[in-house]
Amino acid sequence: MKTKALLAFAATCACMSSAAIAAEWDDYARVVSVSPQLEQVNRPRQECRTEYVAVQHQYPAQRGVGGSIVGGVAGGLLGNQVGNGNGRTAATAAGAIVGAIVGDRMENTAPGGGAVVEQQPVQRCYTVDQWETRNNGYNVTYEYNGRTYSALMPYDPGQRMRVHVAVTPRP
């Protein structure tokens, strides 16, 4: 009895499995249209270049004392020529002071010091937009068994495409 039941169960399973296999198959459908799905993508990048800029460095002139000395001596000699007695001494001292000031100004205000122009490298960077067109796939419209379908595919299938057909009963 057990053997008959086991054989009946095996036969039922075999019939069901062949019915399930018969309900699915691959076939070909006619492609009606294919349109690429394009997308604009910005990939910004940095562009840098080195420019040379003129930079002026100002170096102060070194102060000299020669003008003060020469001016003081000349002023003292001129002051000594004026007046008598204590007046001459005062005129000599005043002439020496004024001569020293004038000599200092003449020597240390004359152009000369250090104005130096140098070329200094400066790097300048800019962000530049770089637009690229990227293909995200293909929108494929196809016809199978009198009905029209659409699918997004990663490739262009050509004039016909393989489709998987599955038939299942409605409950």
From TrEMBL:
PROSITE patterns named in the record: PROKAR_LIPOPROTEIN (PS51257)
NCBIfam families: PRK11280.1
Main location: membrane
The keyword DNA repair is assigned to this record: no
Pfam family of the protein (one): Rick_17kDa_Anti
Keyword set, alphabetical order: Membrane, Signal
Subcellular location: Membrane
Protein name as annotated: Glycine zipper 2TM domain-containing protein
An annotated GO cellular component: outer membrane
Protein's organism: Noviherbaspirillum galbum
Keyword hit for Transcription: no
Signal peptide segment: 1-22
Ranges of residues in domain Glycine zipper 2TM: 66-106
Top-level taxonomic group: Bacteria
InterPro entries: Bact_OM_lipoprot/Surf_antigen, Gly_zipper_2TM_dom
